[in-house]
Amino acid sequence: MKLPSLNLKEVKVTDLEVFANRTDIRYDLHAFMDYARSHEIKRGHRDNRVPTGHQQRLAKLLSHPAIEADMDEDKCYPWVEHLDRVCLALKFVSYDIKGVYAGYSSSEPSFPDNFITVEEAAYSMFLELPLQAQEERLLDLHLALAGRGSEFFGQVPLARLDGFEGWGTACGVLPTIPFPGVRRRLLQLLAECPSGTWFSTESLVEHLQQHDPWFLIPKEIPASVRQTMVNKGRYGNFIERKRGDWSHRNPISDKDPEGFAKVEGRYLERFLEGIPLVLGYTEVAYVKRKTETPIEPSRGLLAAFRVTERLRRALQKEIAAPKVTVLPNFEVHVESLFFPAQTEQQLRPLGDLVQRGIATVFKLTRAKVAAALAADSKTDAIATLKRLSGRDLPANVEQELGEWAGHSEKFVLYEGFGLLEGRREAAQVERFIQEAISADFAIIRKPEELYQHLEAAEQVPVKVRHADTAWSAREQVRSRLAPAAPARRAVSKKPVKIKRSLQTTLWFAEAETYAAFCKLLLDAKCVLPMDPRSLTVRYSAKAEPLIKELLKKLKEEYAVAIEDIEI
Questions:
Q1: φ and ψ at 217, to 5 degrees?
Q2: CA dihedral angle for residue 552, residue 555, residue 557, residue 562, rounded to 10 degrees
């Protein structure tokens, strides 16, 4: 059914507290995925949440970096946890959500060794979708967002308003409300509003009460539901009372002349600061106040709202592909109201990011283009830019890109590869060869795996680690790469005995983890040299078994990664 045309009251927000979502969930989802790729994230053993340390690092990578004031009482970022839930729902990542019960006495599940796994196939398929299709998937997911009665009771990351009490809501009319359809219907109504204009929330409530009073709770309630509403009425799930007065649980009456404003009106306030605000479809304005309202849940605090252009484009399916323009000054301008992740993914290796926004700018650089071509010889920067922009490049840019490509052909840097020397016909190592240099030399991938393969084939391989400045050689091994060893002269040497003591030093990056480890040492009655200023602990080889046990205990609460360094 088409909703009635809107005729809402415009308001000024001079005396109100305006709030706009500064973060872009589309960018932040891809930032979360980039982080999950490059970090091994072990979720909390008890709560199955992303650990605080990872949340703090993630918060710095967002489109609008979060600050300490954005944390909740558990020192976690609700926005980061929302991104985590969305990535799981979109099947970009996977991890255990059921847990295990550690014994018959366990009342809550535990999540041992629960690591986030990136599902590259599903993520790549999403990136290949047009921006309109990506937005529809994101919108559908949020519209179907499950919760304890949705906006009435549960809060979304940016919400400020309190909710109704959840007691007694398992029966009655509430479980029958089709919230996904209600949300979509309201978004369609809001899309009729001109973007950028502030409207009164009260006038929106009045409009729906007059033209569509059954938008939330249907007029005809099923008989099976009516049986659970005896002596309660259609508003039986909604309790309004004096703040802090838990002795009264009288539901809002159907006969209350303000019943619609008290129930449906409160829902509209919480809806406006919910999904539309999270997706950047609306901005809201609150009444400035210093104390809590005398009645709970609060009412009338979200006094005004305005919609953004994103809402109209999304619902009317007018999200266009990003417009890419290559300028003669080697700048690449990307114009898009919605974050073009795949376009940026193709431009990032070719240039430096100058600015990001509706108009994002990259600056092509010789070093990056040459490095991209060196890393992958199939990379064609000219073809990529032509495909993205849909037109020929400026003549000077195309000429320079061709010259830069020539620089990449001067060298090829292989990282993580090995060099195989010797006959290889009988070794069956063709599948490991990246590039054959000669009959006796070949660059090979997965050198450790090849070494094990040669040992299994009884080829008696020898592993040599070369220095950065010269080839290394081993005795009893003939190699064309090793320099000829100088002749040794017999020298009579005086015997000298030297004693050596080896010590290991642990450096901690955070004071919190350092303090936790020191506590474990004290609990184990182990006294070792500790320096709180540099966050270090030193120990000898004799203490190595105990240190390993204590590190295992530390890993139960923290995602510990130990890196060996040379000093």
A1: -100, 120
A2: 140
Q: For residues 229 and 451, what is the distance between their CA atoms, to the nearest angstrom? A: 74
Name 110's bridge partners: 100
- Residue-wise pLDDT for 448-495, tens only, equals 777 777 777 766 677 777 666 666 666 556 666 666 656 566 567 778
Specify if 139 maps to a domain.
yes
pLDDT in tens, 275-326: 999 999 999 999 998 888 899 899 999 999 999 999 999 999 999 999 999 9
Contact 155, 164 (CB under 8 A): no
350/365 Cα distance (integer angstroms): 7
CB atoms within 10 A of CB 390: 10
The string of pLDDT tens digits covering residues 38-53 is 999 999 999 999 999 9
In contact, 450 and 421? CB cutoff 8 Å: no
Burial of 237 (0-12, 13-18, 19+ CB in 10 A): buried
Number of domains, the chain: 5
Pair (217, 335) in one structural domain: no
- Residue 551 CB coordination number (10 Å): 15
pLDDT over 70 at 398, yes or no: yes
**Same domain assignment for residues 243 and 311:** yes
Asked whether residue 305 is assigned to any structural domain, the reply reads yes
CA distance 185 to 381: 45
Residues forming a β-bridge with 199: 10, 305
User: Is 451:465 a contact under the CB 8 Å cutoff?
Assistant: no
User: What are 169's two structure tokens?
Assistant: 């809501």
Report pTM.
Answer: 0.71
Largest CA distance in the chain: 112
SS3 assignment, position 137: helix
Domain co-membership, 226 together with 336: no
Please spell the DSSP secondary structure of 176-223, one letter per residue. G--HHHHHHHHHHHHTTSPTT--EEHHHHHHHHHHH-TTSSS-SS--H
- Quick check: is 449 in a domain? yes
Task: Kindly write down the DSSP assignment for every residue of 22-33, as one continuous string.
Answer: -S-HHHHHHHHH
| pLDDT exceeds cutoff 80 at 224 | no
DSSP 8-state symbol, 9 = P
Domain that holds residue 330: 323-408
Q: Is the alpha carbon torsion for 229, 224, 168, 210 positive or negative?
A: negative
